[in-house]
Design a protein that fits this description.
Elements: H1 4-12, H2 17-35, H3 47-58, H4 63-76, H5 80-84, H6 88-95, H7 102-118, H8 126-130, H9 137-148, H10 157-168, H11 179-188, H12 193-209, H13 228-231, H14 251-264, E1 269-270, H15 271-275, H16 281-293, E2 298-299, E3 304-306
Antiparallel strand pairs: 1-3, 2-3
Length: 310
């Protein structure tokens, strides 16, 4: 059941700006100023391209795994045009074991579009970002906010969880982002761009470090004295069961093993080499077919396979 504040914000979007600043913006941003991690994509020299690369890599992947790949990626491709000149398969190869490798193809496609449409510079306008291949509402808002300091609601899993607990009074947000969540996020945005951009980064960091999915550290939270969920006694989640993602034995694991062979190869790989990575022939064939369908693997007439060249 939404709190009175959440209901008011979602129903008509009204709230006293000073009250919101005192209750939420100021304490969270002050906490962020004192506790934010020193991450390379937050530094001034990262630039919009560095921010965009980080946003692609951080989707469903923890910071600790992203950091080494991010550094290698930017050293090799410091500008979108540098990546656009390479075959898409090289992006897949450099993606390594970050998982969800279609993100590498999407990032390559975005780099090509940036080079062709925007002279090699990541566009600043939200609509132009959204028009790039592989970029959805979240990524467009994140790049516009974090790279260009604009005022956008940036709703990732961490932010949604903070808002669900602090404002709505429930343990977890819905499995998929709802219209009500988007409206709430817009209503909570500070009015000026600089503060809004800082708020977006701060609320995300709060969810990542303190208001975590499990073992939340309420004693460290700057919103503890006004958190609706904490004040209600931290009621347990009442929605559908939240199942953790499995990996072992899944098609995802098989796809990863197949891609690992192809990434390490400098020449096309024969079918026999791929057959050795997984005993279940049916599952292996299904995983390989999926990689081909996704454009991550290119079959050749001689029965060999390689990472895509076009």
């Amino acid at each position: 059941m939404p709190t009175a504040l959440a209901a008011d914000l979602v129903s008509d979007g009204t709230a006293d700006a000073r009250s919101l600043d005192e209750q939420f913006h100021s304490p969270v941003i002050a906490w962020f100023d004192a506790n934010a991690r020193d991450l390379p994509w937050r530094r001034q020299d990262a630039g919009p391209w560095g921010v965009m690369v980080s946003e692609f890599m951080l989707q469903q992947t923890p910071v600790s795994r992203v950091l080494p790949v991010y550094e290698q990626w930017l050293a090799r491709w410091p500008r979108p045009a540098d990546l656009a000149e390479e075959a898409p398969g090289e992006a897949v190869r450099a993606w390594g074991r970050l998982g969800y490798p279609r993100r590498a193809l999407r990032l390559h496609g975005a780099a090509v579009a940036i080079t062709e449409r925007h002279g090699g510079d990541v566009p600043a306008q939200h609509a132009q970002l959204l028009a790039l291949p592989g970029i959805g509402e979240y990524t467009a808002a994140a790049v516009a906010s974090f790279a260009y300091g604009q005022r956008h609601a940036v709703l990732d899993t961490n932010v949604r969880r903070v808002f669900a607990r602090a404002v709505t009074g429930v343990q977890y947000p819905p499995n998929a982002t709802t219209a009500a969540e988007r409206k709430l996020a817009r209503a909570l945005l500070p009015g000026d761009e600089r503060t809004a951009s800082r708020w977006a980064a701060a609320s995300m960091e709060l969810g990542a470090l303190v208001c975590t999915a499990r073992n939340e550290d309420c004693a460290r939270c700057p919103l503890a004295d006004r958190c609706a969920w904490l004040r209600a006694g931290k009621p347990a989640h009442e929605g559908p069961a939240r199942r953790g993602q499995t990996y072992a034995g899944t098609d995802r694991q098989v796809r990863g093993k197949l891609l690992a062979v192809l990434r390490e190869a400098v020449t096309p790989v024969p079918q026999a080499a791929l057959d050795r990575v997984w005993d279940d022939a049916v599952q292996r064939a299904r995983a390989l077919d999926g990689l081909v369908a996704d454009g991550l693997v290119e079959p050749l007439p001689d029965g060999c396979y390689r990472l895509p060249l076009t």
